[in-house]
Design goal:
14 helices; seven-stranded mixed β-sheet; alpha+beta; about 675 residues
Length: about 675
Amino acid sequence: MSTASIGQSIPRTESVAKVTGRARYAVEQHAETAPAYCWYVPAEIPTGRVSQVTAPADVTLLWHENAEKLGEIEDTELAVLQSDRVAYRGQIVAAVVADSLEAAREGAAQVRVTYADEARPDNELTTDHASLYAPETVNAGFPTDVTVGDPDSALASAAHVVDRWYTTAPMHNSPMEPHATTAQWSDGVLTVWDSTQAPSGVQGDLATVFGLDPSNVRVVAENVGGGFGAKGSTRPNAVLAAMASRAVGRTVKLALPRQALFDLVGYRTPTINHVQLGASADGTLAALAHDTFQQTSQIFEFCEQTAESSRHIYASPHRRTTHRLAVLDVPTPRWMRAPGEAPGMLAVETAIDELSYEVGIDPIELRILNEPDVDPASGNAFSSRSVVECLREGAERFGWAERDPRPGHRREGRKLIGTGVATASYPVLISPSTASATRAEDGSVTVSVAASDIGTGARTVLRQIAADALGVSADLVVLKLGDSALPKAPGAGGSSGTSSWGWAVTKACTELASKTGPAEVTVDTSDDLDAQKDFARMAFGAQFAEVEVDVDTGEVRVRRMLGVFGIGRVMNPRLARSQLIGGMTFGIGMALMEAGNTDPEFGGFSNHDFAEYHVPVCADIPVDIEATWVEEHDDELSPMGGKGIGEIGTVGSPAAIGNAVFHATGVRVRDLPITLDKVLPHL
């Protein structure tokens, strides 16, 4: 009888612990002695200097005049309380420590900060901002600009041209568990329980800023209540908690309030996208240009790879993709689920939809017409590419053939109904990882890796991967993760966790299986990754949406959605479906409601809570939302044969919804989110 675990929908390993409350998060750890509590004081000015800070006598005050001096680090957002400079509203300018959470919060409320050199914020992203520049590279090391051929000449001679601007608003990750840390010092060793996607990364950063050997820093992230990229790198809360703990000589707990998550832990940058498509009479692309603009802070550079996906998705002999960055008085943007791909594909997939109406060809057929034979960016063959299969299967499942192509022609009472489609892509990213596997006398196996399960089911999938490599039942495998004391691993991000950690787990367990009796194996996959052949490795998908638009209010509601994906071998169908539908839900939020409102007078974001920053809730999500996948066998990936799935569900969803709104109404909204004020005046 087969003992195969991969491909089975086994339940989450930690599910009972979570629903019964036994799973402990960052600030739920039991301290040996009564802990102290830290509360931070945010800057109330958009830019300037801190000249003086005073606080009540019954709390410990930390500010730049008395805070310990930290070591230099590249990410200067982590230089907490190291200077008098205020770079943006909401930045940490002081903190108090007290015996109780209530006392710390009240003490922080009574802190008085005196400022100097306050100035009006320069925080509006424009395409002609004086600070615009081309960074050396963009996120994940992709090239900033790429030009192939002569796109301007090709556009000038094209039979059909789409020349449009598309914009997206700032977005906030908004995990259920806020950024939080418990910090403890003992005999020069720092232990932190942190809500992070990257225990090994936090360990390295804390070692750097506090001048420690990494072996004297331990980061535990046993359970993480969501992150979506915002917890992918060390955040100021971890540094401040450790600083406060050393200052008072006690364990310190720090949980950021919800408002802080809109200020100092990262967000998706707003984007401005100029897309130009030139096509022949039959719709064949001759030119594709995608020029992007976004923002970064005064203290640390971050640039999303917004045009990167446009380099791979369609065949065109003439192409240009560029990124420009404005330095503003704003917090530093960071990763948010599908950084770059989500806003970038929104722009290009909307432009492709516009081109389909310009040429008079079905949107699906136009996409298939412009399918590349090889990766347009590298010239390498794709390890696998199922775009056409996803589009064809999705069209059949969705009933695309019954669609009247004319916009604004389907009506049910006071509702206009429309359908839209968009393509999705996401790179297969794999990083080197280590892992160990140990067999005990009773035959049970413990697998250890410093991965972080942020709610995706990594514990479960890694047990399945280990079990198959060992040829045993998953019930015999115990998995240890979420601790930097375990074998070093990359963070959970870029939809790369399962591939990166799973490769190391597979290698360790395969070697262990070749041994008899009790044994232990530790492996590293660096050489394995270096030996990979030159292929373009990407996941793909097709997103379909049906919307209704109220002709009296302009309100848009999604009635049904379908995503069909080419994601290699699926490790656990139950978890995969959950991740893909979660990504599609993200796309609904991006398309219809999520927008951080930049405050041009006082700085920061004027809507910094869930009362005014709206995320999708159950009532916003259609019952008829389905995620599925095509069979895809790819031997040029990891040994497990899978592709990342955490983010591709988001990519394509906003464009599919926007395209459906146009089909329903004839109104093309190019500025996300699509709110009723952008629709109703044109109905």
